[in-house]
Design goal:
The complex is a heterodimer of chains A (591) and B (114). Chain A has 591 residues and is α/β, with parallel strands linked by helices. Among the domains of chain A are: 110 residues, Flavocytochrome C3, Chain A, domain 1, CATH 3.90.700; 138 residues, Fumarate reductase/succinate dehydrogenase flavoprotein-like, C-terminal domain (Methane Monooxygenase Hydroxylase, Chain G, domain 1, Up-down Bundle), CATH 1.20.58. Chain A is 36% helix and 17% strand. In chain A, the strands form five sheets. In chain A, strands 1, 2, 6, 7, 8, 9 and 16 form a seven-stranded mixed sheet that branches. In chain A, β7 and β8 form a beta hairpin. In chain A, 59% of the residues are buried. The longest helix of chain B has 5 residues. In chain B, a hairpin with a 3-residue loop joins β5 and β6. In chain B, 9% of the residues lie in helices and 28% in strands. Chain B has a three-stranded antiparallel sheet. A two-stranded antiparallel sheet of chain B has the order 1-4. Chain B is globular and about 40 Å long. The chains are: A alpha/beta (591), B mainly beta (114).
Chain lengths: 591, 114
């Protein structure tokens, strides 16, 4: 059946209208001039989509004191001194304050101290009223006169002679086949949630910390396009409010509330094993590890003890959470919990694969260009690897730098749009819509379930079950070893290689879910193989290898990268050296 | 906190080019049902509880409820969006009411709709 096609040509083609993408569009316009054709393809509705959709009550990257170098040294410290791309982080940290000031002018309410300066939360964060964070961010793309296509799900990048030429996808609402070309292409479609089994079941299965509609498309598309990938040996494990998985920085940094165990012991401060690892302000993975260890030793439940926090701030706790996670406020109301009078219970949610929070996943980029190893293909936000802890304000800045990079590439190299092979486009079209076509051919049980097909949610559950059991989910306290990684690889690869032929979708919404699971499975391959390759434990708490429990600096004090071989469906591993720019002890803060 | 639609209050956004909840939902979850012309969340389990639909609904027809496996009924959290702020009303299971007015946009404080 011939589908209606939409052809789009752009100078700057942006996949994902989020934190990084909107600011990339803005900056590309500033440095690329009036005539630059900027296009954004957005899976949902740009004004309200993405990880910012529920709002946010702080910006977690801001130079309140010291210099950008001190912030980067802190980021390095906070990931246990692991190698980070200091070149990239320095560029972002150097631009972040200017970007925040710009966003304040655009309408973002930033809380102030009596003297008019921004109200800081700890050393590197500031407090905001961010319920409209996404509309304000999206407005930057509008002001840049980017042409936005909403509800377009991009499935694949197209490469020609080793260069990216554009992408294809489908209209989630209109069912059309989209073919877009760009002289430069930016992938910034978020990280990957939902690879492991969620803690909440049934109608609470999306009650998770990270935005569940970011399903790894950034990583899957870059991998399939042949880009060098990095950082999938780390996973972000969120220790968050129990059941609701709302962020806890509001309590831990905002009001200095300590984690306590069932005995009321502030274990980070009082137990020697954690004090020597950094105490209350220990690196993020260590705080996860400590929480897990308390629970494993049956000293749970654990809490954030707001009763020991700053009383003035504790009183405003509910209001602060309305700007970031209103569900938690309702949860308190429905469970008779008063967080100013009693400690708030916490739990570890399942890992997310991300690059812009305190983890490393993404595409490898050349210098500070934001270009991947595939010519003309750029990444930013969660899609950019090895440069953790940029958060929202850093992703805005990172997006701006990507926009500059693309506009600069167009000015200097004068790339032309590349011709796309009609046969390739037809193959991709067939592949994209295949789950719908298969459903049409199915016969059905009396229940309405297809005899010859598997629905996307059924495949998702199978994938989550495998990852949970064999790739160190929450129920395994994030422990893995070579044996269970081998089982995970075997089962996930069987799904990817043999089972996707049964994936069916009965409507366009299910086609979106089908591509979500296809992309997630591709990310699972990256995660399993990267974790297996790093035969050491560099991020205890995130990934605990029971067979290699120590860090192995002789072999792994570097970035581990992979390239996907499409013919063999295997990853080939390599290493990139770590370059320390900011001198000093990597496991210490400078201020 | 998946969205549930109160039938008497939802008019399917007649007059709008597209029903607002359907327009904004990041998860593509809100749809207008054919026979009734009213909105419904096609899979409440897929909702991330961002509350965008609830804030946008011009008739306050969407009630967000917390999953029963996580909390008791019949508490409610109701946002009313003004030009510069959101007024939130939290009614706990015993009927105790708390109200919060949260700034949304920077600008002249005098102009706020308080």
């Amino acid at each position: 059946m011939a589908r209606e096609r939409v052809y789009i040509d752009a100078d700057v083609l942006i996949i994902g209208g989020g934190t990084a993408g909107c600011l990339a569009a803005w900056e590309a316009r500033q440095s690329g001039g009036e005539n630059l054709k900027i296009v954004i393809l957005e899976k949902a509705f740009i004004r309200n989509s993405g990880a910012l959709s529920a709002g946010m009550n702080a910006l977690n990257m801001y130079v309140n004191q010291g210099k950008p170098e001190d912030l980067v040294a802190y980021i390095r410290y906070d990931v246990c001194g692991a190698p980070v791309r200091e070149d990239i982080l320095l560029g972002v940290a150097g631009l972040v304050n200017e970007t925040v000031a710009m966003m304040e002018k655009e309408g973002l309410p930033i809380k102030k101290k009596a003297d008019g300066s921004y109200l800081n939360r700890g050393k590197w964060n500031i407090e905001i009223n961010g319920s409209l964070l996404k509309p304000i961010t999206a407005n930057m793309a509008m002001k840049a006169r980017a042409k936005v296509y909403n509800r377009v799900y991009v499935t694949d990048l197209i490469t020609v002679d080793g260069m990216v030429a554009g992408c294809v996808g489908f209209g989630v609402r209109d069912g059309k086949y989209y073919v877009a070309r760009g002289k430069t292409v930016l992938v910034c479609a978020g990280g990957a949630a939902g690879l492991w089994r969620p803690r909440g079941q049934g109608d609470a299965h999306h009650r998770i910390w990270y935005y569940p509609f970011n399903t790894g498309g950034s990583y899957a598309m870059c991998k399939r396009a042949g880009a060098k990938m990095v950082g999938f040996d780390s996973r972000f494990v969120p220790v968050r409010t129990k059941d609701t998985y709302a962020a806890t920085g509001t309590m831990s940094i905002g009001m200095w509330a300590p984690m306590i165990n069932a005995e009321g012991e502030a274990f980070m401060r009082e137990r020697e094993e954690y004090v020597k690892l950094g105490g209350h302000t220990a690196p993020t993975p260590i705080r996860v590890l400590a929480y897990c260890r308390e629970m494993q030793n049956n000293r749970g439940p654990c809490y954030m003890d707001t009763t020991k926090g700053d009383p003035q701030r504790v009183d405003g706790l509910k209001a602060q959470y309305l700007d970031i996670s209103p569900i938690l406020v309702l949860y308190w109301g429905c469970n008779d919990i008063n967080p100013s009078r009693e400690p708030v219970e916490i739990d570890a949610g399942n890992p997310s694969i991300i690059g812009a929070h305190a983890a490393f996943a993404g595409a490898w980029t050349l210098g500070t260009s934001r270009m991947t190893t595939v010519e003309r293909l750029f990444v930013s936000g969660d899609a950019l690897g090895a440069a953790p802890s940029r958060f929202i304000s850093g992703s805005w800045s990172c997006g701006r730098l990507a926009g500059r990079g693309m506009a600069g590439h167009i000015k200097e190299k004068r790339p032309e749009l590349l011709e796309l092979d009609p046969a390739v486009l037809s193959d991709l079209e067939r592949n994209i819509f295949a789950p719908l076509e298969r459903y049409e051919k199915c016969s059905f049980f009396t229940s309405g379930d297809p005899v010859e097909g598997v629905f996307p949610n059924q495949m998702e559950w199978r994938m989550q079950h495998i990852m949970e059991e064999y790739c160190g989910g929450r129920s395994r306290w994030f422990y893995v070893n070579e044996t269970n990684l081998g089982i995970a690889r075997k089962l996930i690869n069987r799904m990817r290689r043999e089972q996707l032929q049964y994936l069916v979708a009965k409507d366009m919404h299910q086609l979106q879910l089908a591509w979500d699971v296809i992309n997630r499975l591709d990310v699972c391959q990256l995660v399993i193989d990267h974790i297996d390759h790093r035969k050491e434990t560099r991020y205890p708490g995130y990934v605990n290898r029971s067979d290699y429990p120590e860090a192995d600096d002789a072999n792994f004090d570097c970035f581990v990268t992979s390239l996907w071989d499409a013919k063999k469906d295997e990853l080939t591993f390599g290493k990139e050296p770590y370059e320390q720019i900011i001198p000093g002890d990597r496991k210490a803060q400078t201020i | 906190m998946p969205p549930y639609v109160i039938p008497d209050q939802c008019d399917g956004c007649q007059g709008e080019r597209e029903p607002l909840c359907e327009l904004v939902c990041p998860g593509n979850l809100m749809v207008i049902e054919e026979p009734t012309g009213k909105a419904v969340c096609r899979d409440v389990g897929d909702c991330w509880d961002c509350m965008t639909c609830t804030k946008y609904c011009p008739r306050q027809a969407i009630q967000t409820r917390i999953q029963y496996q996580l909390a008791f009924v019949p508490g409610k959290l109701v946002p009313v969006v003004g030009p510069h702020s959101v007024t939130w009303t939290l009614i706990d299971c015993h009927g105790h009411v708390e109200r919060f007015i949260m700034r949304m946009l920077a600008g002249d404080e005098e102009e706020e709709d308080l």
